[in-house]
Write a structure and sequence with these properties.
The structure is a single chain. By secondary structure, the protein is α/β, with parallel strands linked by helices. The chain has eight helices and eight strands. The protein has helices at residues 14-25, 37-51, 61-67, 80-87, 119-127, 142-146, 163-175, 189-206, and strands at 3-8, 28-34, 56-60, 70-73, 95-98, 132-135, 155-160, 179-182. Strand 2, helix 2 and strand 3 (56-60) form a beta-alpha-beta unit. The mean pLDDT is 97. NADP nicotinamide-adenine-dinucleotide phosphate is lined by residues 9, 11-15, 34-36, 39, 74-79, 82-83, 99-101, 103, 138, 140-142, 196. The site of NADP nicotinamide-adenine-dinucleotide phosphate (NAP) has 27 residues, from helix 1 and helix 4.
């Protein structure tokens, strides 16, 4: 059975590239979520035009979460909790893959640890046991995702407390053209999220757009 993945806040920088890659893989039905139906449909139509097929639908975030088998959250940290509350009802019994990085503008290249330990831990605390939350894709630049014809030179570190949920995220990483790696429990998400600020600083200092990470030593 082909699973349906909803990209909540999928109208920004990071979400569309993920949606495009998952739709292109032929392994998922894809929904773009937004606060506005019209915006969701517009971005879905733009992506479908690039794909040359109508593979992606647009919906408001709560409907997208309810219609999907699993959801991926790509919103700024400032919108994290309000967005989670808006989709909570539709997530019961499902997996949420949280891409949110707790950046604190203007110092986005400085690692910030939020009060709940990590954005992912805050999501899990809010949603409770009814939703299995996993951290993934925080270190993948939108610039690379958008270029869907090319593989991405970046590993996806996946953190969470549920093995099956982590396996789903690893499968999604592979479908998007990357290697997904089990990076341990949800407690470790703080490191993966923090790495993004390190990469943003490297982008600035070395004048590049999409520094990424690779784990070496694996067979
Ligand atoms: N951009 C990257 O290269 C990158 C890389 C790795 C990780 N990330 C992380 O991924 C997440 C998304 O990044 P992004 O660059 O895609 O963000 P973004 O473009 O600024 O925002 C994504 C979407 O979030 C929704 N949103 C924005 N402000 C909101 C608010 N106040 N309340 C509710 N929804 C709001 C908007 O959707 P609607 O208006 O359609 O509702 C927007 O299109 C962030 O946490 C970021 O740190 C980004």
């Amino acid at each position: 059975m082909t699973k349906t993945v909803a990209v909540i806040g999928g109208t920004g920088n990071e979400g569309p590239g993920l949606a495009l890659r998952w739709a292109k893989s032929g392994r998922y039905h894809v929904i773009i979520g937004s606060r506005q139906q019209e915006k969701a449909e517009r971005v879905a139509a733009e992506l479908n035009a690039r794909l040359g097929q109508d593979l992606i639908r647009g919906m408001v975030n709560p409907e997208a979460a309810a219609a999907a088998d699993l959801a991926v959250l790509t919103v700024p940290y400032s919108a994290h909790i309000p967005t989670l509350k808006s989709i909570q009802a539709g997530l019961t019994g499902k997996i949420l893959i949280d891409v949110t990085v707790p950046l604190q503008p203007p110092k986005v290249s400085h690692v910030y640890t939020p009060p709940g330990g990590s954005a992912t831990a805050e999501a899990q605390d809010l949603l409770g046991d009814a939703v299995r939350v996993v951290a993934a894709f925080q270190n993948v630049s939108a610039t690379h995702l958008d270029d869907a014809d090319h593989p991405i030179d970046c590993d996806v570190l996946v953190c969470g407390d549920d093995k099956e949920a982590k396996a789903e995220a690893i499968t999604l990483a592979e479908a998007a053209g990357m290697r997904g790696l089990d990076a341990g429990p949800l407690q470790n998400a703080v490191m993966v999220e923090g790495l993004t600020s390190v990469l943003i600083g490297i982008n600035i200092r070395y004048k590049v757009k999409g520094a990424g990470i690779r784990i070496t030593g694996l067979k």
